[in-house]
Fold each of these.
Amino acid sequence: MPAAPDPLSFAETRRRMRGDCQALRQCLRARGLPDGALFWSPACQCVMLYRLSRHCHVRGWNLRARFFWQLNLWLTGADISPMSDLGEALLVIHPVAVTISGSAGRGLVVEGWGGMGGGLDMADIGAGPGLPVLGDDVVLDHGAMVLGPVRVGHRVHIGAGCTVTRDIPDDSIVEEPPVRVRLPGQH
Amino acid sequence: MAGLRALLAQDIDIYLRFASAYHDVPPGFKRRLGALLTPSLLACLLHRCAHGLHERGWRRLGLLVSLANLWLTRVSIHPASRIGGGLYIPHPGSSIVFQGHAGINLCLYSGAAVFAAPGTPLHHASPGAMPRLGDNVSLGSKACIRGPVTIGSEVKLGFNARVETDLPDGAVVFAARVRNRVRPRAGAETPGCDPGLPALPPH
């Protein structure tokens, strides 16, 4: 059994950063889009700045952690707390108005406008008081939110605009009801 | 350059038409110029500049101006997006994302989003696969259009409405209604009324 990676080492942070870039490249290639100049993309900037702030936070360099968090908020509009532990291959597609605090496994995809954070209950289930814990390969679609101390299983897809405040089992899809379209002449 | 000025003049007109509804004063030259300092019109100005640079082939510079738009006003619009005159963004701080093409008088309320496809970061979308919106389209708060769809003119999307299909002219889209639960507080006699407050005067 391989030894658990040392969370304090920069090598581990760099490994996660590489995984994040690779996930973004794969996402772009799968859609036939150019995968160059990732440095200019807010999607990449936001994850890299989060990794740096997380690294500083774990090392106990709180001022530096706060600096990178603040820089992330200014440059990309994403508020990803350095206290949240997110696995590698993290993908934030549109970072504006994304708020993430809690913990998640590898392969988390956040489409934009939403994220996860505290609800009304302050119970601690492993991510901090009142914060959610997500499994591997979870997708938060545009506007989806996970609020409060809830557990979301592996490979869960939380659909656009859904707000989750209860535990979700593995391999499930959360969807909101379809929209109603009124055509001209109808009432 | 003349085209950019004409588009921007239409943006200012629309903005001041809404603004003067509250002030009842016809806008003068200084007021029109001063309006450019508001975040709503700053976002329009920066997008017009970014689009102009993109069209002239200065892609990287256009991208930089659109990033400046994101840093300053929290509005991220793909520089290749063709948007007609009269763009109105009343609350730009609430992070609007736009990858698409639109006709005149587009109105984007807080958190409105138009995406090329799921999983496409802002500056990586290809202009051919973006949604096309007609004239006088209005997106309500948190409304979302996604995928390479065609949306007709005079279409309105309500709060939280999400669309991934084509829509004809004049369609109105509502999100499924979510009923909020109202229950009385402990010790209160009627729901929603705080017994400690005096009764409201009659109309």
Amino acid sequence: MTDSEQRRGGKLGVGERRSVVAGLGVLAWIVGLLWIFPVAWTVLTSFKTEEDASAQTFHQGLGFGRYSDISHATAGTLSLQTAFMNSLVVVVVSTLFVLALAIPAAYALAIRPIHKWRDVLFFFISTKFLPIVASIFPIYVYAQKWNLLGTRSVLVILYIAINLPLAVWMMRSFFMEVPRELIEAAEIDGTNLFNQLRSVILPIVAPGIAATALLCVIFAWNEYFYALQLNFANGSTMPQWVITNVSTRGNFLAKLSAASVIACLPVVLAGWAAQKRMIRGLSMGALK
Amino acid sequence: MHGRRIGSVRSRRTLVAILLIAATVIAASFAGAASGRSSAKTISVAVVANGQMQDIARLTPSLFTKKSGIKVKYTILDEGKLRQVTTRDVGSGGKAFDAVMIGPYEAPQFGTAGLLKDLAPLAKADKTYNYNDLIPAVRNALSAKGHMYAAPFYGESSFLMYRKDILAKNGVKMPLHPTWQQVAAAARKIKTSSMAGICLRGKPGWGDLGAAFTTVLNTFGGTWWSAKPNGQPDKAQVDQPAFKTALDFYASLVQDAGEKDAANSSYNECLTQYQASKVAMWYDATVAAGFLEASDSPVKGKNGFAFAPVNKTKSSGWLWTWALAIPKSSKNPSDAWKYIAWATGPQYLKAAGSRVKGGWAAIPPGTRFSTYRIPQYKKAAKAFAGITLAAMKAAPITNPGTTKRPGLPGVQYVGIPQFQDVGNRCTQLFSAVIAGSMKSSAAISQCQQIASQAIK
Amino acid sequence: MNATAADVALPKGKAGDPFSSAWRRRLPLLPALLYLVAITQLPFVVSIYYSFTNLKDKTQSLIPEPTKFVGIDNYRQIFSDSFFRQAVWTSVKMTVLAVLLSLIIGTLFAILLDRKFLGQGVIRTLLITPFLLMPVVAALIWKQQMFSSLFGVLNKVLGFLGFNSIAFISDHPTGSIVTVLVWQWTPFMMLIILAGLQSQPSDVLEAANVDGASALGIFRQLTLPHLRRYLELGALLGSIYIVQAFDAIDVMTGGGPGSTNVPYYVYQESIGGGFRYGAASAYAIVVVIFAIIIATFALRVLSSLFRDEERA
């Protein structure tokens, strides 16, 4: 076990008796299950029929009927497949660009810092304080002028800007972890920036990159405002597709639950798989 | 460190390969990013998320695209979002949509402002479209100065729907032209713990709570603004006694005998509740009757219909139509017209009857006289077709209340551009009054402020 | 301890010489910096321009009104707008409540999870799920499944227990929104605090325990100070995102009484229904100025984090 794992969580908490730990374990289970109840209930509802869903009963059993309902859309209306592809492309492309921009920027702020690195970092974070609703109208006007409305490109462009500050900040912290000797050794060797990155830095910060990428993916996949305002019809993304399942005719709760499950599943699975990385990234990255 | 040299050629190649793949993926994705824009044989249409629209969206590929070769990409939104999107797009000369769904509130305004294509010449020139078959009240509501700016998809007024069996069980008789006091008394009498007396809209929005409430406001002698001699809005009238009386009446009726979660209920929610026998009466759009009497409706055959309740006026029902318009900036106006001619023409109505989920009773009503001559429709809609037409004819669009007001014609809205925002913000407050979390006097004073500021 | 990159001496390159060390250091930063400036600052500049005009959507006037300069009229109007003040107050309320609650609950969860028990990983996995959901989905889940008077689970339970159903969203719009925000952001705070707890050197804690200190005492004297930086980080990051909350309001209340925060209010003034683009731009600029002030304050917190970093 590494030192950090040995510190906490790997054995009994400091000074705690077995029974206390067991009791707290039970408490943790109760708390966890209660907190997750809304999600669990939604997943359960997604397998019900509509009548059962609106009455909160179980009379008609469970099945995958709603999932197949929402997977078949009428030609001409937004389909699950289209929305999924749109979201996938937008998220992957924007995240790649974010990493491509953030890694060199972090280098310039951490490894060989520029003179005013603090100011630059502050600037990056301060852009997150600008409410995006404040600039939506000029963005709309120019997106319209340049025929970007309803395309995936406009979302990619905006999502890069949304995620870049956080990515730069996190990547910089990870870069700070790179031992000075390795960098100095590489500099003495005369390696250029690119090779330094490749052979020395990236292997060390790889988990940090993964954590950053995961956060970018989460925020981009779940983004609703820009998608709603600038995209429509066949350019729409998953959040918009979920909303179309808030039907107007009759009950829709089961279908909406199924749609919610499908829409959130990719990011949830990714988050589950990478949660250790996220914790390590957050602890290693943002603070020492 | 010394392994660097050995692996550098291989890793450089890998790097190049990765970059090439990434570039291809990116290029391909951007190439495909032009979706949503119209090409020669694809048009983009924005419609509201109501049952009849979803029906036609489903039938478009088989009934329209097959014959005309024009693909239709629908953007289906709820009323509030639809209005935001279409108003913004049409108003900024956007090319996002080739056809948009609007109503008699928007059509004359947008048309006069020069933002919509005049459809009258196209309609008149098309023999199969049968321009004179359109119900005049509906056609005129969408026109200004002789130009028809939108083609009606369905038309409606408002009236009272009620469960004949429940009322009979309670010994309540509903006259054909009831007053609001009669309806309120009946609702309070027949309500039980499991079935509310009446469903009234409570959801914020000028087209939701605003529509129902404004008809009540009119017939109680109130109005939103007074009018100058030239017809322009003069002063906000929200702080007048008649307004408060109407608001208090509406709110207390909903609180006493109205549906659960009224502040979230509009047309769709009330429809669901009525069909689930959770409410015994419902004041709302005549188009709902089609769904109540549909072949698959659980309450089919149990419904009675009465004209919109009145107080100080002779009639109070509204007039509304969801209609399709072509923004002037559309890139495919001729294809858009082909689509609109099909969607609002008599052939679709005949074809839809046997194909939509609710059967003949659920086809789009209220736009053409010919609809009411189709034998299957006459049979399926027997209970409500006559009173629907009569209600639409009786809608007092030129004189909805007891005083002069701006923004005429129009019953459940004020036909000025500022009303949309004022109506939305004020109905937020009124919805809170209905929910019981705000006093009506507080809501009224805030709304008066909003209404006054808007016309300055 | 290893010296890290932070110890490198800053260069003294000749300013202006393109091949000077200083410019070579700046180069890798430029793509990201220029991109962000272009995408975030340029619309801002355009907004400034619009804010001095009476630009409206063309549908808002029957006779085409030419856009003209109106000087600072739009700004003057803001100060007499009581609804804007309401929105500011709502923003403050919502953000403070949501951040504080999620921080406190998140810390409690982190403490709870900071030991080995059966299924620790599973519970932690379950607990972070709300953070991974789409905000619109989270809002819809709470609106339709939990809070609804018709289908809602909470009201069904209340009914079983013999109580009347509560119209959560209609009666407590701000509270409902805060609930959803806290539900989603607590896991995020929990992760940060958990990282803080797990970075504590256990030898110090063991020493204190051996010395006879109580669990509460250890927590107060040793753990809490160590956690301070993590708490500040959580509060900062959480505030940045929560103050911009939009999806939940749009889906749950539509801005209903008292639940309109500043972003939603500006949205309503502009493309959300008011279509008064000139006036809305003025609001946007005012909001941005406030945001800069708050950012400066918040970044002082950041700089103390940096100072600690450098010291360590």
